[in-house]
Amino acid sequence: MTFKSARKKKITKAERLKQLQEEEERRQKEEEEARVKHEKEEMERLERQRIEREKWHQLEAKWNHYIQCDGSPDPSVSPEINTFISLWKEETNETLEEVIAKSKLVLNLIEKLRLLLLQTPSYDLEDKTIIQYRGSILELQELLHLKFNVATERLLRQASTLADLDSGNMEKVIQDENVTLYVWANLKKNPRYRSVRFSETQIRFEIPRILATSGIAIRLLHTHYDHATPLRPVSASLQGHTATVTHFVKDEVQKGEAEISKELQEEYKQQECESVSVCEEETKVEEQGDIEVQMSFVQEESEATKCKLEMKLLSEAVFAAQLLLIENANEKPCFCEDNEVDLCQFTTLGGVYHLDIFELPPQCKPMKGWMIVEILKEGLQKYIYPPESTEDFETENAFPPIEVTLEVQENVIFFEDPMVARWDAEGKHWQTDGISNVLYQSEERLITFSLETFGPVTLIQDTHINMPFQSWELRPLDVNKVLLTVTTVFTEIQIQIKENLCMLASVKVDNKKHSSTLEGRWMTPISFILALKETGLNIFPTGHSHFYVVINHKEPLVEIKAYRQLALLSSAFAFGWSKWNVECSSKKVIVKLREHLTEEEPVQDPNWTLLMFSGDRAQRLKINENSETFSEALKEETEFHSTLYHLVKDFASKEAMEKIRSSKCQFIDSVCYMLLSTRLLSYS
């Protein structure tokens, strides 16, 4: 062998550079994988801590309800609510004032059941529980309305003793926070008395001659709640998804326990093999041995592993429940007939006006110091107007529409003139036919219309009148306290969120301050959302809203992960709407961000940073909000991260990170729930 052949082959400069480049790429890849692994482990740890605190708060809430001891039944306990209903049915001699007083408790029980159906996670609600709660709600609603009818009959039997000295007719007005009642009894039957107006109100009826000469009573029962609209059924897709989540959790628990047992079994056999050699046949016998006996040797390890599995499954179930909040339905729930109100497109506002004409019952008569009254077995009878047959009447227009003027509830906002709908008892829906000459006086808050036949009527408004949003901003006010501002075509709504509570901070309509009864009232997120919807401030899309609004669709998984990250960072960072969010694909979202540590008012031109997030990769963008063209280019001297949390750690101050770590889980959950409910990334 010659020296030349033995000499090592010399590496060229190009090959050397290539080797160095490959080594550098390998090193960067290893560092990236290690960082991503560390970030995921840290996020899992934070999620476990959040779930543990959440479980504790749920137990605390149950205990607080238990120690209230206010004498009211627990509506979630079937025997208690059934006993309450049965005992109230036996009370048959109540006045209207007594029924109205009792209605406060009944409405409170109904509201508790509604909140239980809404607040309880879908994976914790069984079908039989849903049926029980809905059944109790319907029974309470029907009984409450029946009680109003019975008490009205009792009042009308005494109408002659309560007659007005001037008109000779009876008038009764009862106003309450939940109900306003107007009753007028036609005792004189004067054909010239055809305009019925309740004293000290703007409520008015223009009745035809045939009613002016009949022994009738007119009742307007204005309930500030809506018990006429049927409870919205759980869609088949939602039921299927809920059942899938529930079965998934149960199956995974069983599977996980089996895996734990298998791991413990193998660990036990390993220990046995180290101490004494066993033959293959003996090993097979050990594999078929009693798992419980083997588990007893490593009980502590078993409990820790099982707890970790339960946390993992609960986290997955929570994620699935959040997914239900933002999933878009594949099809509309129903197709409405002509004149039928589509309750996915329109919302009833201001309660329900129950308009009824009754036949006057026999009146009380004094006799030898006693009051004698005939009580009809069939109870209070409705006066049919117009009658089913009009052949006996000579004039063709003997039954003209009745003109009605109603007062609109003060705390309800209509951004456009409301429409009037009447209840179809047979079809069980609202419809707009049979109503004419509608006139809305916004300054006086009066609505006048002509009605062919009496029955429940309500005012409706487009559910999506404030969608899509023009912009939004989430700004910290303090640790565990933020301000969410949503700007629409008609209004600007500011919502404060702290711990597990929300409050309406301010409302502007057409750039003018608007006072609302909700301002300053702290409520849980779901109660707050329901209250806003009932006042007409609906900024909460449903699964069917995309059929009525042009949206900027984002993938549900990406959207959920983004809202979770925004909520986590919201104590120290302000976020806002970016025009580039529309330009990126549905698998990515773009938001503005800046560190915000004090409670000062937002500056006019803050120095925002643009972030792009795809669910598993976060980056800072090179462009800004004023750039002319869109680009996904990475900002210089920055790098990719798996979450927004780890991305901001690169440039956040120590004070900001400390605020984030000090955030309470209840606060983060409340912010996340509000973001999921408004879906700002898809509806802006």
Automatic annotation (TrEMBL):
Gene Ontology annotations for the cellular component aspect, listed alphabetically: axoneme
Segments of skewed composition (Basic and acidic residues): 12-44
IC97/Casc1 N-terminal domain boundaries: 14-192
Compositionally biased residues, Basic residues: 1-11
A GO term, aspect molecular function: microtubule binding
Family according to the record: Belongs to the DNAI7 family.
Protein name in the entry: Dynein axonemal intermediate chain 7
Native source organism of the sequence: Lynx canadensis (Canada lynx)
